[in-house]
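Sample entry was shown:
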Amino acid sequence: MALNGYILTALCALWGGIIAQDVQLISFRECPVDLFFVLDTSESVALRAKPPEFYINQIKAFTKLFIDQLINLPQPCDRNVTWNSGALHYSDDTELVMGLVDLNTRRLDLKAAIDKIKYIGKGTYTDCAIKEGISELLRTGSHYHENKYIVVVTDGHPVTGYKEPCGGIQEAANEARQHAIKVFAVAISPDQEDTRLSVIATDANYRQNFTAADNSRSTQMSTISTIIDLIVSVVTQTHHNNDVCVGTPGEKGEQGSRGNRGPRGDPVTFFNPNRGILIYLNIFRNIIFPHFQQGEPGRAGSPGYRGDEGATGPEGAKGPRGIKGAPGDRGLMGERGEDGPPGNGTEGCHGFQVEDHSGGKGTPGPKGDDGEPGDPGSDVSPFRCICAYHYVSLNAIFSICISESIGASNFAIAKDFIVTVMDRLKLKQFGANESRIGVVQYSGANAQEVVQLGDPNIKTLTDLKQAVKDLRWLAEATYTGEALQYSLNNMINKLVTERSVVIILTDGRSDTKRDTVPLNVLCGKGLKVGGVGVTDYAERKPNPEQLEEVVCKDDPREGFSFVLNNFGLLLDDSFLQNLTERICEDKKCPTYTCPISFNDNTDVLIMMDSSASVGSKNFEMTKEFAQMLAKRFLSAERGGFQVRVGVGQYSNNANFEAEFSSNTTQVGAQITEAKFQNAGTQVTNALNFAIERFRGGRTRKKKLLVFSDGRSQGVNNIQIEKSMEQVSNAGIELYVLAVGNQVNEVHLRTLVSRGRPYDNIYANRHLFKVPDYRSLVTGVFYQTVSRKISLESRG
């Protein structure tokens, strides 16, 4: 019986060893790969389409589809590629979605966590996100360092001119290479900043125009399949027969000593499932065991586990040339070019004498030759605050938003806008008691920069303009309140506030949840605050509530605001006139207008557009503008000549609202009674109507002003050309006024062509443009229009 016990004990020990060997064999057969996703949910991604979640949802769907394809893959020599995966998403902050988990057990948990991603929508710190992904791979996952991968899904934005707080993407990519971590760069959509994506990728094989949200050039499945195939090929073929998951066979162990004979055991039954035979071991125990002898050596065991890492080897050979680096900083400004030819300007209005600085009377010179007659000058001085060489000093502070939603090209326009306003204000006298000017640019938290006269390298206005042009785009979040507090502490408090004007250029969407400084921080400080809200590159409108809060409407020096549809309108002449007029309206300058005059009997007909696309409120402003023109025409210097004004309107049909008359009161009253037609737009009907009304009166000049955006139902360019030939043959000089930016440029060019080949100089004198109807009745635009119409044609 004792022998039976020994036999049973030996069999159990043998069975336990077999089971343990099977567990080790299963573990050996697994070749785990760690794959970590780094997902860009910054503002530049969110604003590429409407709604903002569109591309974010595309990225989430791509990632979940990718995870579904990460299944165990059998390989030669009884090996299986298995997967561990995790993810994070980032903007100017990094949020861990889930650390590395075994997809055989936690696949659904990881997909559910990805579904809960909410885009952050601020700046883009890709370098920080990659380094955080590297940390996750090294901290957890398998011990095979060569089997670690990162998939970065980003738009590569921005390219240049912003801060990378974690050393930059080049440094992050190099760190991944040092740890043998391979990085794939996947674009959100095709053709996105391929230079930066190539810097992120380990090499060209890890870029390959991978795309996460494109159904035409590279589907999601093709991108995913290519990446998986590349990973598997590296894992199983890198070292030929000795891949990265297999260690080298260990040395053969020494032969063990023979064990003691065990006691006789009890009878045992054993069922072999392969043969199905019941063996009664107690029948053979006295026959088999006495004849046991030491057998031949068994087959070699399975390869052992990978050993510890050895000492660092000698320095390797110089590697291949790296990929092209990112663009460098902008170079220094070049030398001044050669002077251009003299300009062809027009004589301006007489100036205003303010102090007697005249010198002694000079000797009369000889009479010069008579020159060619030139155009009279503009009817107004460029800006009303330029009323004299000396005036009460003006302190101007510009605060411009340069968040990521602005876009690089719009930031360049914003800098040109500031330089243009400086030129228009003509602030020539600077010093301790004179005008001061400075610029603060801002983006996210603690992201403000200031340039101003008086800085060590800024001694003149020219230096300041160059400093503004050299400002670099920060491309982060939008902290307007914090920026205004910074401006107050670093610039405004050092100035005389009652002479200070602050202009804030923004997209009107400050992050008030993270920025704790209130937007009205400048209110109650005796400042005049102006806000310019501009639609960003994703066509999101400025927040009107934030804009109203910024400009301090309830202060004694009431603020003002403008809203523009795009950044290009910042350089529009009419907007610049209105802005500088608001900046300078507190200046005590003379009120003046350059008079207009007619040198012949003249009839002026104004045709107002009352189609449905105009709208009733805009039509009321059109009527007010027509009254302002009529009053100015009929109060002009006539020198014995007769001037008459008539007003009509057109939509589908045209009709007279005020017959030709020299009575200002009568014409104004008739304009007031005009009713909005609210129908279609037929500009050719307006031209035919004018020809009929001007018929006769061959000795009178005929001037026609038509409101038109160039769009007309059922009318093509050929029909407009024929109508213009008839207008020209009737001796009518046509002027066109276009409102807004939704215009048909081709038709407008034809309307001011006189039925002849296009003449750019003539067209510029006969085509007026304003960004909106409010601009018609604010500022001095009506003086500009009336001045040009009153001039003698030089066609």
